[in-house]
From TrEMBL:
Membrane spanning stretches: 21-37, 174-198, 229-249, 255-279, 286-304, 343-363
Keyword Transmembrane: yes
Protein name: ABC transmembrane type-2 domain-containing protein
Family membership noted in the UniProt record: Belongs to the ABC-2 integral membrane protein family.
Name of a matching Pfam family: ABC2_membrane_3
PROSITE patterns, sorted: ABC_TM2 (PS51012)
Membrane topology: Multi-pass membrane protein
Highest taxon of the lineage: Bacteria
């Protein structure tokens, strides 16, 4: 009867989720529109950056520099006066402001080294980080061509041959789409499981379950398998129809192998969701706990920055987090086409962490019911 109870209780959870329109809308949005937006909203390192130019020389040389800036790296430059430069930077209208001094062309032809001022709004980190090098390269190239009256091929002492693997087109949409699927699996599994338990407590149905011939183990497992199944099916459909179909992202590895890893990840994160729901007294408190848990899990898991760049104590803590191993497994399978012989350590780690979290959450859940 224990398996039958777990099955019936899980079906009850699925029916309850089917009546919750907000959670259903969240699931559909997270695995469709959010993935599409994430893949399209991740621009190149420098893309359509606003730039203004103060041309105090008004010469052919300075005109060449002005004409050299344009899409896709920069917006068409806006010619402004020296008095407008600081005001526009203060208002955040320009990321770059280039000031070409008077007598610029005369100094260039006289083989002197004129000084060109470049102001950068460093609060726009993504563009400011590499934008200065782009501007310097463009100005230096145009000045050299103007001085020599011809464009001369640059000869490097060493030839560097670059081979981009796994993402030959260097398309950020490939990375953004798959990364969002990975993060949505963790986020929704915690939210759905925790919301299911809190919803029963708020509606008073948890007391009805306690007078029935069911155990806390059966109640908890029913919530884990039902909510985990919803997320697992949604992620599989999203990979096939949204990532591969709509976005045309080629997945290198085996989707079934990825789903096996996702199932183990769901086992761990749904257990975590039950634990957070027992700690939280209401849905608003549960939302606050999610912020404290989800943000570190997502940011420090290795999906955005390499784990090796983390400080030592944080690296040690994240090495026992399920997200860290799941991100490593998902990237190896979906990006690099890794097989079971490569990702089995991550599978074992996820299974072990899931068992520990399940046991800890079950003990907390039993105390919560008493």
């Amino acid at each position: 009867m224990r398996a039958a109870n777990i099955l019936r209780l899980g079906v009850k959870e699925l029916r309850g989720l089917g009546r919750d329109r907000m959670l259903l809308a969240l699931i559909v949005y997270a695995f469709t529109l959010a993935i599409y937006a994430e893949s399209r909203a991740m621009p190149e390192v420098l893309n359509k950056a606003p730039i203004a130019i103060v041309d105090e020389d008004q010469s052919p040389a300075s005109s060449r520099i002005v004409a050299a800036f344009g899409p896709p790296y920069f917006l068409p430059p806006r010619l402004i006066t020296h008095e407008e430069m600081d005001r526009r930077m203060d208002q955040g209208l320009d990321t770059f402001a280039l000031d070409i001094p008077p007598n610029f062309q005369r100094d260039v032809l006289a083989r002197r080294s004129p000084t060109v001022q470049l102001n950068i709004d460093a609060t726009r980190m993504t563009q400011a980080f590499n934008g200065g090098a782009y501007v310097q390269s463009i100005v230096a190239g145009e000045v050299a061509e103007f001085r020599q009256r011809r464009r001369q091929a640059q000869i490097n002492p060493v030839e560097l041959t670059i081979r981009a693997r796994f993402n030959q087109e260097l398309s950020p949409s490939w990375f953004g789409a798959i990364t969002h699927v990975i993060s949505s699996i963790t986020m929704l599994s915690i939210i759905l499981t925790g919301a299911a338990l809190i919803r029963e407590r708020e509606h008073g149905t948890i007391e009805h379950l306690l007078v029935m011939p069911v155990t806390p183990f059966e109640i908890m497992v029913s919530k884990i398998w039902s909510m985990g199944l919803v997320v697992l099916v949604a992620s599989a459909l999203s990979l096939v129809f949204v990532v591969q179909g709509v976005l045309a992202v080629p997945l290198q590895g085996s989707i079934p192998l990825f789903l096996v890893g996702a199932a183990l990840q769901l086992f761990a994160t749904t257990s975590m969701g039950v634990f957070l729901a027992t700690v939280a007294g209401s849905m608003p408190q549960f939302g606050l706990l999610l912020i404290m848990v989800l943000l570190p899990l997502q940011v420090l898991s290795g999906a955005m920055t390499p784990l090796e760049s983390l400080p030592g104590p944080i690296y040690a803590v994240m090495s026992i987090a399920p997200n860290t191993h799941f991100v490593s497994l998902a990237q190896a399978v979906l990006f690099r086409g890794a097989g079971l012989d490569v990702v089995w350590p991550q599978l074992v780690a996820l299974a072990a962490i899931g068992c520990v979290l399940f046991a800890f959450s079950l003990a907390k859940f039993k105390r919560f019911l008493t």
